[in-house]
Amino acid sequence: MHPITTDLAELRRWIGRRVRHQGQLCLVVEIIDDGPALVLGALDGDSVIQGDQYGEGRRRVRPTHTVPIFGSDGLSLNPDYADLEFIETP
Fold first, then answer.
1. Exposed (0-12), middle (13-18) or buried (19+): which is 69, by Cβ within 10 Å?
2. Do 39 and 17 touch, CB atoms closer than 8 A?
3. Model pTM?
4. Bridge partners for 22 per DSSP
């Protein structure tokens, strides 16, 4: 578990940290200010075909997940965010 924060400066410090999201090991790759939300890149599991700007499949990549900080009401925390498990690194 991690301390729940909505402070953007604190969230940016999480970039590069490993988290477990819905049972999948991921890496925090970006913080979206407008929202705010975490962008997670999967480190395990199956890859998906990534389309180019025209929708043509060009390469296989690991999936990404966007986890909003707040729920749909804009006030309560998103349960997916609250359930993130941060993995301690040595």
1. buried
2. no
3. 0.78
4. none
Closest CA to 77 of 45, 41, 35: 35
Are 10 and 27 in contact, with CB atoms under 8 Å apart?
no
Nearest to 39 by CA among 73, 71, 62, 72: 62
What burial class does residue 14 get, using C-beta atoms within 10 Å of its C-beta: 0-12 exposed, 13-18 middle, 19+ buried? middle
pLDDT per residue as tens digits for the range 11-54: 888 899 999 999 999 999 999 988 899 999 999 877 778 888 89
Chain centre distance of CA 90: 21
Q: Per the structure block, which two tokens stand in for 71?
A: 């729920």
81, 69 contact by CB (below 8 A): yes
Dist CA 64 CA 60 (whole Å) = 12
